[in-house]
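Dear V.,

Thank you for sending over the compound details. I've combined the ligand you provided, flavin-adenine dinucleotide, with the protein sequence from our construct and run the structure prediction for the complex. I'm sharing the raw inputs here so there's no ambiguity about protonation or stereochemistry in the SMILES, which I know was a concern on your side last time.
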Amino acid sequence: MKPVNFDYVRPRDVEGALRFIANDERAVKIMAGGQSLGPMLNMRLVQPDLIVDITGIEELRQVEEKNDTVVFGACITHADIEDGRAPDVTRGALRTVARGIAYRAVRNRGTIGGSITHADPSADWISILAALGATVTLRGPEGSRSIPIENYIMGALEADLRPGEMLVSVTVPRLSAAARWGYYKSCRKTGEFAHAIGAFLIDPERDVCRAVFGATESRPIVVADARRLLGDSSAPSAGFDSRLADELVEAGGMADPIDRQIHVAALRRAVEQAGAA
Ligand SMILES: Cc1cc2nc3c(=O)[nH]c(=O)nc-3n(C[C@H](O)[C@H](O)[C@H](O)COP(=O)(O)OP(=O)(O)OC[C@H]3O[C@@H](n4cnc5c(N)ncnc54)[C@H](O)[C@@H]3O)c2cc1C
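Below is the predicted structure of the protein with flavin-adenine dinucleotide bound, written out as structure tokens.
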């Protein structure tokens, strides 16, 4: 099957892109790496009148390193992070996760902003960025707003993207030198989408301990204070409370006990990884 006919523009700046996106007389679709949109176009699941290709916008290819954060432009690719062209302030977490996304050809084109906005529950960025406490910044007709990534993801393939808006950047906090993280992706073979993800961060200097059950059927389940999962000990792998973890995923809407067990095991392994680091 082939896409329906559509017009194509490649603006040079965000303002130009926003002018095209604001057009409410036509069905407009943003395209970044095209790795998810391409198949959807081919299957005619989306039938736009106009494609706005944002990969020519220099601002979206920028990375700004600050004291406490790094800000990634929406069109930074997975390969940019994997290859270290974008600085990693997460003690290797982002780089390691990037390496496990799909295959190199996909990583060369796929972007952080596209992956997040596509909101596939099995995608890797959503889970690790939620564990790291990242925020996304949207720009649109009403101006700019920044929200935690877990609030941006509203459900499967559903992001909180309002009419006329686009995602312009992702802000990731800088981890302290004592921070430890773990990421466990359960999938049949390397490069495939996950069927369960566990992501964990403990950063005592910043008083942060977060856990994420990812690759659920909807949005990731974020445990903002995950210390209670570690039992009495502050050493991450010493006393992982599988029963509490199971309760948390069940409360998050996961009914199937086998599914829950796989997700709990994925998080336990992420916690163990953090303990071993
Ligand atoms: C074979 C294959 C295997 C894959 N395996 C994995 C995997 O293991 N893990 C994983 O995480 N991902 C995987 N992916 C997905 C891949 O990571 C893509 O990068 C991602 O799904 C989409 O990113 P993109 O830049 O190509 O976005 P596009 O396909 O261009 O766009 C996706 C959606 O986001 C919207 N969009 C894009 N950018 C913006 C923006 N800045 N603002 C607002 N809306 C925007 C588009 O309108 C579209 O709706 C895989 C893809 C393929 C083809």
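A first observation: The chain has three domains: 7-53, 58-173, 181-276.

Warm regards,
I. M.
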